[in-house]
Write a structure and sequence with these properties.
Layout lengths: L6 E2 L5 E3 L3 H21 L11 H13 L39 H17 L3 H16 L9 H6 L13 H19 L3 H16 L16 H12 L2 H13 L48 H18 L2 H17 L31 H17 L3 H17 L15 E2 L1 H6 L19 H10 L2 H4 E3 L3 E4 L5 E7 L2 E9 L6 E6 L5 E8 L7 E4 L5 E5 L2 E8 L4 E6 L3 E4 L11 E6 L2 E6 H4 L6 E3 L5 E8 L2 E13 L17 E10 L11 E2 L2 E3 L1
Parallel strand pairs: 5-9, 17-22
Antiparallel strand pairs: 1-4, 2-6, 3-21, 4-5, 6-7, 7-8, 8-13, 9-12, 10-13, 11-12, 14-15, 15-16, 15-22, 16-20, 16-21, 17-19, 18-19, 19-20
Length: 678
């Protein structure tokens, strides 16, 4: 078995320095994780309820009272009691499952974020809360290893019989990822052992062997999680099960066609002209035959990430090439400039190539989180700066934009143009919110943000035997083991606002190794100092420096970071005649709060001067860009809806632009990323 090009750093190898990302990680630690724990226990007034932990307590009660049957019968009566909108008696939830079928995953993503936070910042009180929550979760596990509260509470007669819709393997995947993370952070294996028992039970039910089911997850996630379990335990049965799910997907006759048809989600099974079904689930063809990103965008990213994991660990070139094709389809035909994907609210899905509407964009936060998962895994197979460029773009724009600056409200949908009146009065845009809610009934996005930001060093840096890869120029102290020596670097960086990166080798022992520093795709000019003593090469967007690193060695990179206008491919019809503004990896937008109403009347002068000043938004100082522009003046005749053409007139104005991730922090107002160009 061939090793991957690189592996993520463990969080113990990185200590964040003061700056942009430490501030965000501290925000998650101090505000978001405690807030989400309150949400899991329904202690936030005015927010959508979760009842996640109550489900676990109720499931544990059922098990203690021996009310659980373990059966594969086809009796599905009463299966959808969990989809109730509200419980009849909010104060008495015993004997009731509440929420979505995937409600368990809220806890699993929370515990994963907690694990990463504890790795960065030990906290005895938080660890005690987490341990007690784990006790509750593990008490709900059946003797055979099964652990999903929806079926434990509602009856086991239908478990593993509707993989298409009921998310059992998805919930398992998140449980396993959280368990592995918590084990690495604390050394405690109670949750990991529970996840392993559940995985073993799944392995008894599914696989290539005779008598086992040939199914696979409806919502992908288990594929990635099983690989993490393999890497944590060294037990190849978990890798083999992941590979089985990947290999089995999309084979005809479709496994899911034999499952009970339980509700209207079967719409997503409809066939196209090639008699291919299940595009929504990326199960229309075997994965090696897929070459276009289709269907539910989050599911797609989780599948592609799992495929990349399996490809690198099994040295499967056909699977690796399929990943490359799906990557190109995603980022070169179906991605917004903000790194958002999934343009239509119908199915939270990809549309056809170059269909990227701004005002009806779905652009789910989780989809961009998933894109970052996919990008990191592609980087592990192949150090190509394109993957890191996209990872950076999605991170600084859509992912950060999915959370308010104070960490207490969140976006599920991330549009590039908003008119509040349309959101309220046009059903086609009802999914586009002008302000962030405190929470969601389907709360996948907030904990996804928390677990990603808390684990960001694992995306910023990867390593192999003799090379440290710097993908995101994140400030901090980075260590790497090279043979029996420990290399240690101090990285100082003011990303994303300035392009200067200083790197000091502060290890006490001289070390022979390579440092590979990414040259960002947004940078047209760059220079480096202090690299003369190293062998140098530029390969696929990385500057490789190989030689002997001694204590006190200092090098620096200066990446030119100037504001720059971008235009879209002419096949993106919505953006013809428009431009978007970026500085470095950060996309900018115009808000009504700075520019008044009717942003559609503005046009900008791309060749004009761009002025930068720093301004306060919700207590955080951010760079604001002021650009030369014009505002259309009213036509001379306004008494009818349509008037004879007359030449438009404009008056000069200054258009103020703020970082996209900071929009909607000053109340409800218009916003747009793309502006007409003069």
């Amino acid at each position: 078995m061939k090793h991957s090009v690189s592996y993520p750093l463990t969080l113990s190898q990185f200590q964040a320095s003061e700056g942009f990302w430490k501030d965000k990680m501290e925000l998650v630690r101090k505000e978001v994780i405690p807030y989400q724990w309150d949400m899991l226990n329904d202690r936030v007034e005015g927010a959508a309820p979760s009842y996640c932990m109550r489900n676990y307590k109720t499931a544990g009660k059922y098990i203690r009272e021996n009310k659980v049957e373990d059966s594969f019968s086809n009796n599905l009566e009463g299966m959808y009691r969990g989809f109730q909108v509200l419980p009849k008696d909010p104060e008495n939830l015993e004997d009731t499952f509440y929420g979505f079928v995937f409600q368990d995953s809220d806890f699993s993503k929370w515990i994963e974020a907690v694990a990463y936070s504890l790795s960065n910042h030990p906290d005895a009180e938080l660890e005690k809360i987490a341990d007690e929550a784990i006790d509750v979760v593990c008490a709900a596990q059946l003797e055979n290893g099964y652990l999903d509260t929806y079926f434990i509470i509602n009856g086991m007669s239908g478990h593993f019989q509707n993989l298409t819709d009921l998310h059992e393997l998805y919930c398992f995947g998140h449980l396993a990822e959280g368990a592995v993370a918590y084990y690495h952070a604390t050394g405690k294996d109670k949750l990991l052992k529970a996840a392993m028992r559940y995985a073993d039970y799944i392995g008894q039910c599914f696989g290539p062997e005779e008598g086992k089911r040939k199914g696979y997850p409806g919502h992908e996630e288990a594929e990635m999680a099983l690989v993490r379990m393999y890497e944590a335990t060294g037990d190849e049965k978990y890798l083999n099960l992941s590979r089985f799910f990947v290999d089995e997907r999309g084979k005809k006759p479709y496994y899911w066609d034999s499952e009970p048809s339980c509700h209207g989600f079967r719409f997503w099974a409809k066939r196209d002209e090639n008699d291919e079904g299940y595009q929504y689930h990326q199960a229309h063809r075997p994965v090696r035959e897929q070459d276009e990103a289709v269907g539910h965008a989050v599911r797609a990213m989780y599948l592609y990430s799992g495929m990349a994991d399996v490809a690198r660990l099994t040295d499967d070139e056909t699977l690796r090439e399929a990943c490359r094709k799906l990557w190109r389809s995603t980022v070169r035909e179906k991605m917004y400039i903000t790194g958002a994907i999934g343009s239509t609210h119908v199915g939270e899905a990809f549309s056809f190539p170059f269909d990227l509407p701004n005002d009806t964009a779905y652009a789910e936060t989780c989809a961009s989180v998933g894109l970052i998962f996919f990008a990191r895994r592609m980087l592990q197979m192949e150090a190509d700066s394109e993957y890191a460029d996209i990872m950076e773009k999605a991170l600084y724009n859509t992912v950060l934009g999915g959370m308010a600056l104070d960490g207490k409200s969140f976006f599920y949908v991330n549009p590039l143009e908003v008119l509040p009146q349309a959101s309220r009065k046009d059903a086609r845009k009802a999914h586009v919110l002008p302000v962030r809610p405190k929470w969601f009934g389907c709360a996948c996005c907030p904990p996804n943000i928390a677990r990603l930001i808390s684990s960001l060093p694992m995306y910023a840096y990867t390593e192999n035997e003799d090379t440290l890869f710097m993908h995101l120029h994140m400030a901090g102290k980075v260590s790497k083991q090279v043979g029996d020596k420990t290399a240690l670097f101090q990285v100082n960086s003011n990303m994303p606002w300035h392009g200067k990166v200083d790197i000091c080798y502060c290890g006490r022992e001289s070390t022979d190794m390579t440092l590979a520093v990414r040259i960002p795709g947004w940078c047209e000019k760059w220079q480096a100092e202090g690299i003369e003593k190293f062998d140098q090469r530029i390969e696929k967007g990385y500057c490789y420096l190989t030689g002997t690193w001694t204590e006190g060695t200092n090098i620096s990179f200066c990446f030119e970071m100037v504001p720059r206008f971008y235009q879209a491919d002419e096949r993106v019809r919505e953006d013809i005649g428009k431009v978007a503004l970026m500085k470095g990896p950060v996309v900018y937008c115009a808000e009504e709060a700075d520019n008044g109403k009717n942003l559609h009347l503005l046009q900008v002068i791309p060749e004009g001067e761009i002025r930068e000043e720093w301004s306060d938004i919700l207590g955080i100082t951010l760079p604001v860009l002021s650009i030369q522009g014009e505002r259309k003046t009213p036509a001379s005749t306004l008494n009818t809806l349509y008037t004879p053409y007359e030449k438009n007139t404009y008056e000069a104005t200054e258009v103020k632009m703020i970082p996209y991730f900071a929009w909607a922090n000053r109340g409800e107002n218009e916003m747009t990323v793309w502006l007409r160009q003069k």
